[in-house]
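Researcher: Please translate sequence to structure tokens.
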Amino acid sequence: MHSWTFDDMPDLSGTTAVVTGANSGIGAVTALVLARSGARTILACRDPERGARALQAVRRAAPGSDTRLVGLDLADLSSVAEAAGHIAKETDGSLDLLVNNAGVMALPLLRTADGFEMQFGTNHLGHFALTHHLLPLLGTGGMSRVVTVSSLAHRIGRIDFGNLDAARGYDKWRAYAQSKLANLLFTAELQRRADEAGRPVLALAAHPGLSATELGQAGPRLAGRTWAAKLERATRLYTQPASAGALPTLYAATLPTALGGSYPWRSCPRTPRRTGRPTRAGARSTPRWTSRRPAMP
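Model: Translation complete:
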């Protein structure tokens, strides 16, 4: 089996895709490749200036492509709802691909606009809410996909139901791992519910691998550790480029034989060996916040 590359991308003409965090790194590469492949591509970005620059960069690199920009702050659920409304208008009520790519990593203890711990709130809850708002658009024109970018850090993650808001202690790396595990549990539950409802929706996750992006910069900067930010930037010399990190996401997004609930990384389909254990005895491995959501429309 040959390694999957950008050359294996299918013609996506007539499809519509949304990519969160598309202003830099893996998200920017993902949006560009989708646009070059013919998809109407919506860049969902928090910073309007950086988003506008990313939009222009995609348009220059993919002349004639249909690319658009929508403001989205995943750390503010009112912004998520507003963005979903704009996306519904931009897509004419039909969405073929949602790439939940944006994320933060190893931040000092911060809160979202709604009071959630920032990593859990941004990486999981924000994307969870966005997907929920966009569900009515998915599967209306045939099979649609939701690809959520996770990380092998999920292997050390535990869903601590008794401390989701970090009120009883906080460790930045455990919080990150918990959010990435939540991404996988969300993906599995979304696929289960889609199958149960008979909806033409595939939910997949992807692990990009250690890539030369800005993901690791925010934590040291916010903590006031400029030396750590410089060290993180130097380590990029030993990591793969963002283009390589985008391959598993694009593989999951377009491979015709992809299975719902699968977890591609390094361009190969994988399934996580364990889904993690909540720390409270007797709690289910499927998160409660997922099971409380209403049935798929």
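Researcher: Any highlights?
Model: The two ends are 39 Å apart (CA to CA).
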